[in-house]
């Protein structure tokens, strides 16, 4: 069975398992990057949905202990509960759903002396716009392979991928998916 078919089924299975699109969007928002946090009105604006639909899902996820809430300047801020026993499992499932596991595997396979892979842009902030911005840092990177890789990855994960290559290490913001020095 081809990788594309396997991934497509995996993608479909998650949407079958989590039938609420709002819940899936919230899980992506908070579990793709544990530093992401937001409040009800901000989520309603970002998702273009009613506050009632989002409030219902936030309450369900908070009651289950998957999200935690805290008062922040007259607003309730929500974020992933990193102490929940299933935190790592949920994070990994969300990252697989987005194709980040395949992306990282393909980059590390033949890109050269990769030092870091950093997810930047909307997805790093938890907004799935179907565009993945990736910064690949290292020495002697195979920039010819990047064009082939871009097309292949886009077919595999059904998202647009934008690669930025940098020599050496970087200290820019974003979600570090791989760091040779840190062992991540």
Mind explaining what this structure looks like?
The chain has 184 residues and is an alpha+beta fold. The protein has two domains: 3-89, Arc Repressor Mutant, subunit A, CATH 1.10.10; 99-179, Beta Polymerase, domain 2. The chain has eight helices and seven strands. The protein has helices at residues 3-17, 21-31, 40-47, 51-63, 87-98, 100-110, 121-124, 143-157; strands at residues 37-39, 67-72, 75-80, 113-120, 131-139, 160-167, 175-179. The strands form two sheets. The protein has a four-stranded mixed sheet with strand order 6-5-4-7. Strands 1-3-2 form a three-stranded antiparallel sheet. Helix 3 crosses helix 4 (51-63) and helix 6 runs antiparallel to helix 8 (143-157). The longest helix has 15 residues, at 3-17.
From the structure provided, what is the oligomeric state, counting identical versus distinct chains? single chain
Structural domains: how many? 2
Strand order of the largest sheet: 6-5-4-7
Low-pLDDT residue spans = 1-12
Structural class of the helices, strands and pairings? Answer: alpha+beta
Classify the helix fraction into a percent range. 40-55%
Average pLDDT, to the nearest integer? 86
What's the order of the H and E elements?
Answer: HHEHHEEHHEHEHEE
CATH class of the largest domain, please?
Mainly Alpha
The CATH homologous superfamily of the largest domain is called: Winged helix-like DNA-binding domain superfamily/Winged helix DNA-binding domain
CATH architecture of the largest domain: Orthogonal Bundle
Radius of gyration: 17 Å
Q: Provide a count of the helices.
A: 8
Q: The biggest beta sheet, please?
A: 4 strands, mixed
Report how far the terminal alpha carbons are from each other. Answer: 30 Å
């Amino acid at each position: 069975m081809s990788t594309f078919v396997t991934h497509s089924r995996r993608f479909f299975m998650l949407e079958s398992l989590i039938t609420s699109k709002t819940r899936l969007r919230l899980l992506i928002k908070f579990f793709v990057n544990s530093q992401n946090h937001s409040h009800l009105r901000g989520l309603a604006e970002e998702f273009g949905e009613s506050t009632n639909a989002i409030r219902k899902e936030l309450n369900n996820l908070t009651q289950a202990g998957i999200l935690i809430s805290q008062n922040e300047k007259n607003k309730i801020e929500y974020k992933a509960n990193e102490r929940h026993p299933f935190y790592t499992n949920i994070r990994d499932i969300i990252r697989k759903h987005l194709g980040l596991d395949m992306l990282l595997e393909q980059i590390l396979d033949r890109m050269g002396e990769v030092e870091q892979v950093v997810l930047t842009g909307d997805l790093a902030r938890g907004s799935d716009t179907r565009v993945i911005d990736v910064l690949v840092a290292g020495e002697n990177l195979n920039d010819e392979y990047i064009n082939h890789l871009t097309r292949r990855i886009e077919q595999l994960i059904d998202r647009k991928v934008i690669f930025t290559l940098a020599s050496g290490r970087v200290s820019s913001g974003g979600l570090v998916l791989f760091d040779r020095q840190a062992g991540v």
